[in-house]
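This entry is set out below.
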Amino acid sequence: MVPLPRRVSDLLQERAARLPRIWSNDVLRTIAPHFGGEVINVSGWKDSDKNGDHYRSYFSSASKYYLSNFAGHSGLADAAAITDFALDLEAPLPAELKQRFDTVFNHTALEHIFDTQTAFANLCAMARDAVVLVVPFAQKMHYTESFGDYWRFTPQAMRRLFERQNMSVVYEAGNNTFNASVYLIVVGVRDAAKWQGKLPAYRPLTQLAQWIGKNPARSLARRIGLVGATARDHE
């Protein structure tokens, strides 16, 4: 097989990583203003949305907004000046941080933490009201000497994890962008009744990454009438 030209290869890689970020940012801009009180972006590095803005601006109803980081790649070494709390999610949660914040926000960090059960429990324990998580459902391996890459998450797994922490899922969404990573956005809360009508109606996800195994050339040919549809095209 002839290798792709460098620029084409770079563009495909940019697509795989960038499009789910754009999608998740669009969704977060819609739902984040509903979360008031004190908000913390846990393991948020420099709080960048990687699209020229900061997540602080998304949570426009927050009375206070904090940032935590942990030493290592994209951690305290790079973001010390803007870090409010140094926090290791795999360690016992300091007593003073239990239910310290109204909303806990965490974007694509859990896959890099081996002890996910402890990390998830800590995120929930910090929240008085809600936890807003972005996690990968499908994504290429990405690790360095400074951080690992251990997990991917399904909607069912997220529901069970929140259930273990006596919290209820009130919102979940996932992108289905062709030939790109797939992210989940899941919101868990302590009092589901309080959130009724505030967020889009909760519809549990039953399908994700439906593009896997599809033939893009055939789909294009079918749309312009060069070939007829088959049963597989409608799966």
Summary: The chain has six helices and seven strands. The mean pLDDT is 87. The beta strands are 37-41, 62-69, 85-86, 101-107, 127-138, 168-174, 182-189. The longest strand covers residues 127-138.
